[in-house]
Amino acid sequence: MATKTSRKKRPDGTTVAPIFEQKSRAARGMQDGGCCGGGESGDAPDRRRSPSLSPGPRAATDLTETMAEGSAEAEAAAGRVDSAPATRQDILHLKSFIASELAHTTKTFMTEVHAIGTRTARLEERSEHIVDGYNELARYTETLADRVSELESAFEDLSNRSRRNNIRIRGLPEKVPSDQLEAVFIGIIKQLLPTLPSTYCLIDRIHRTLGKSRWQNTLPRDVVARLHYSSTHESLIRAARDQMVEYEDHPLSFFQDLAPSTLIKRREWRVVTEVLRSNNVRYTWGFPFHISATYNDCTHTCTHLYKAKDFLKKLGLEIPEAVSQLNAPGALPRLPREWSLPEV
């Protein structure tokens, strides 16, 4: 409850503040730092100013005391209100206020939850489209990988078939000029196959492999020769396996000319071929690329290195650790369309 502060009436006899009292002309001059007209302070007549409306010192003191008493009464009244028990009307008003605040907060919260649910539903729909697109790309990529592998295998087979009549000679010195390579090679053929007719010693072309010339204390570049007759090529390869051929004290070796990709694959199979040779198992290479071995009158074939474990197992041979750790290339992972919680 608010208390009204009583206000005293202005007293009838109002005194004038000292600063507004009438001063003599002499006094004003002294205050200004000089004197006016040589007059004395008592010469100027005393003029009375209009009465001031400002309360005097005593009235101001009474007003301050009255305001202090009003403040004390207001504080006492507020203390009585706070310590008083709440009425039924106050409780109902508080209940209505809490209910309205809860309803407003719940409505705001439900609006935000609904917005989050809508955004989540859109994200799930988009994620399903992304998952479907990824799975389709994974299948398409695997199909492309298989087709590329088939094309590489076909290209490698064509390259090796075009080199079928080629023979690679290693160890022929670089000092033999290019225009004499054919004559030197025909002499080597007659040395290995003395009974071969001259008409079958026909050479389509002969040249050294690409690269810079190699001279002292280095292995010379290989010489590649294409024989016109495949029968001459096969007879020369078989004779070179059983005979030692030299040219001016330089030992020569003869190999089948193969595609670079085939040579790389054969190097990768070196672990398997060492096991076959150590167990005196004869093997042959085939086209498209594969290896065949015969054991106990049974011929087994293998096309990929990761299948070499089963290949050696069928032959009854020991499987090296490097081969046992090889696995088939796995398929690309697929993503599920449904969301799943992580396992704890």
Please, how many domains? Answer: 3
Going across the biggest sheet, name each strand in turn: 2-3-1-5-4
What kind of oligomer do you see?
A: single chain
User: What is the assigned CATH homologous superfamily of the largest domain?
Assistant: L1 transposable element, RRM domain
Point out poorly predicted stretches: 1-8, 14-21, 25-57
Calculate the mean pLDDT score and round it. Answer: 79
The helix tally amounts to 9
Name of the level-1 CATH class of the largest domain: Alpha Beta
The counted number of beta strands is 8
- Name the shape in a single word: rod-shaped
CATH architecture of the largest domain: 2-Layer Sandwich
Query: Order of SSEs, N→C?
Result: HHHEHEEHEEHHEEEHH
CATH domain topology of the largest domain: Alpha-Beta Plaits
- Judged by helices, strands and strand pairing, the structural class is alpha+beta
